[in-house]
Amino acid sequence: MILNGVEIRDSFAEAFPMVGTRLIITADSAKWAMIAAKTMTGFATSVIGCGCEAGVERVVPESETPDGRPGVAVLIFAMDIKGLKSVVPNRIGQCVLTSPTSACYAGMEGGESISIGKALKYFADGWQISKMVGGKRIWRLPVMEGEFVCDHDTGSVSGVGGGNILILATSRGEALAAAEAAVENMSKVEGCIMPFPGGVVRSGSKVGSKYKGMFASTNNFYCPTLRAQTDSHLPPEVASVMEIVIDGVSFDAVAACTKAGIEAVVALGRDKGVVAIDAGNYGGDLGPFHFKLREIMA
């Protein structure tokens, strides 16, 4: 399959079940809502080393937030519900409760509940106040700046983690420009995040290592500098590869996000140095979710 001079390789992304939740973070200004959201979702690129994967899903207008203030929706994913129940209140407590003028609300219903105020109320040392608003419990915690308001809990969903595309290009600059265009378009798809820095991964990994105790290591098959020493998957003209990893609330959300990314890269075309789109997988033996590139773009 060739689209605008770009080869869509006959490959698939292999993804895994994850458990996720959405939070709505608000503040007096859009600036501080985004600061709290980005701080809370920091150091959350991969469950391998971070314990969760998280990112900003979208900006939420004042007309859609529970308190009528500027908001940001974030998604957080973990490998199981126990892990999610641990990381969510910890991150809210350290990064949202502490952020000036912030509040934190549930962003989804259903599934097992994940504590927000149920866990954070103890910080108020007995001064916390609980109220029922619209059939939902909220908490007001006095703080030096004023008060922190949050929902009692939020819902959870069985999601998908590890969807991906690989962008093969003739130079590092062209690979990054294509990845940036892809992330911009993918960010328009609700229900998904790209958890790595700026949504882009320059150090894609394979499972295992020659060193004991390493769960993952550099994907030498896609490293241009190792072309002569390994069973390279790169054509001669490719000098750089960028990966975009996708986590989403459903298979369909990740598929739509994958398509949006490929469409943006293909729009640039071969004239902008993009040679091919590929995907990372493990032969189909580990992850139950397979995102076949050519089927998605058919």
Tally the structural domains.
2
CATH class category of the largest domain: Alpha Beta
What class, by secondary structure content?
alpha+beta
Mean pLDDT: 97
Please count the helical segments.
7
Q: How are helices and strands ordered from N to C?
A: EEEHHEEHEEHEEEEEHEEEEHEEH
Strand content range? 25-35%
Percent helix range: 10-25%
The CATH topology of the largest domain comes to Alpha-Beta Plaits
Tell me the Rg in angstroms: 21 Å
* Ends distance: 9 Å
CATH architecture of the largest domain: 2-Layer Sandwich
Largest sheet: 14 strands, mixed
Keywords, please?
2 domains, 14-stranded mixed beta sheet, Alpha-Beta Plaits, alpha+beta, 298 residues
Task: Describe, in plain words, how this protein is organized in 3D.
With 298 residues, the chain is an alpha+beta fold. It is built from seven helices and 18 strands. It has helices at residues 30-40, 47-50, 81-95, 117-120, 172-186, 251-268, 293-297, and strands at residues 2-3, 6-8, 12-26, 53-60, 71-78, 103-106, 114-115, 129-133, 136-143, 146-151, 153-154, 157-169, 192-193, 205-207, 216-218, 240-248, 274-278, 289-292. The strands form three sheets. Strands 1, 2, 3, 4, 5, 6, 8, 9, 10, 12, 13, 16, 17 and 18 form a 14-stranded mixed sheet that branches. The chain has a two-stranded antiparallel sheet with strand order 7-11. A two-stranded antiparallel sheet has the order 14-15. The relative contact order is 0.20. The model has no long low-confidence stretch (mean pLDDT 97).
